[in-house]
Amino acid sequence: MDTKITLTQPQIEFFAANGYLVVENLISLEEVERYKTLYDEFLSGTINVGANRSDLGANLGDSDKVENITQIMWPSDFRPELLEMSYHQKALEVSKQLMGEDLEMDFDMLINKSPYTNTITPWHQDEAYWLNVPDKRAASCWLSLDHATLESGCMWFVAGSNLKEVRPHTFAAKKGGALMCTASEEEAIAIELKPGSCTFHHGRTLHYSRGNSTDGQRRAFIVNFRPAEMIRYERANGFDHGRQNAADRQLKNDEFIK
């Protein structure tokens, strides 16, 4: 039976001041193996997600054989059982403690860096990608399914950037795709993680990761949370984080079942 995760007041205060928080052992190693199996079905294309899959590192890396940074939006649309599994439930539980009981899941996504792709995720603030909503509360949980190290592409955060304005962002490549802003490792802290551990960060927290120069995968599973009222505001204004329409999702699910 899952154990409820209760944050301490110092943890909550650290997040508020610094814009990120490490939570060790959010899920068990046994659960990590189950998530890896599902994750690899997405990566291999066994679960066909169509236009929900893209190369976030297109035009940033050198690989022409594999995606430089694989991004898959809304995996729970294609495997709905994910919503009831431990990760989504525990991440929501922690997010509510950090930012309020009115938080709900806004979207989820997979971001993988394959072996030796060595493509950075540029410095950015998630808020730069999003609709300008009245209530800026937003928390992203970044769960590592592998050992996230400096060499494989662990996360770096700029402490306290959540309390400042969003920096000017531009496209990292001429053809669009990833956004980037000016920041450096000198002002940041690297967070290495073991499988099953995670970080939470505010939507305004500056972060980035190096490329994966190792022979292993760097599988990350991200779930974002914000106030339910703001999710309704987003959807009413046509903003859904790249979600396909219901007919497309059903078609892909039917193909998977076949």
UniProtKB/TrEMBL annotation:
<dbReference type="GO" id="GO:0016706">
    <property type="term" value="F:2-oxoglutarate-dependent dioxygenase activity"/>
</dbReference>
<dbReference type="GO" id="GO:0005506">
    <property type="term" value="F:iron ion binding"/>
</dbReference>
<keyword id="KW-0560">Oxidoreductase</keyword>
<protein>
    <submittedName>
        <fullName>Phytanoyl-CoA dioxygenase family protein</fullName>
    </submittedName>
</protein>
<keyword id="KW-0223">Dioxygenase</keyword>
<dbReference type="Pfam" id="PF05721">
    <property type="entry name" value="PhyH"/>
</dbReference>
<dbReference type="InterPro" id="IPR008775">
    <property type="entry name" value="Phytyl_CoA_dOase-like"/>
</dbReference>
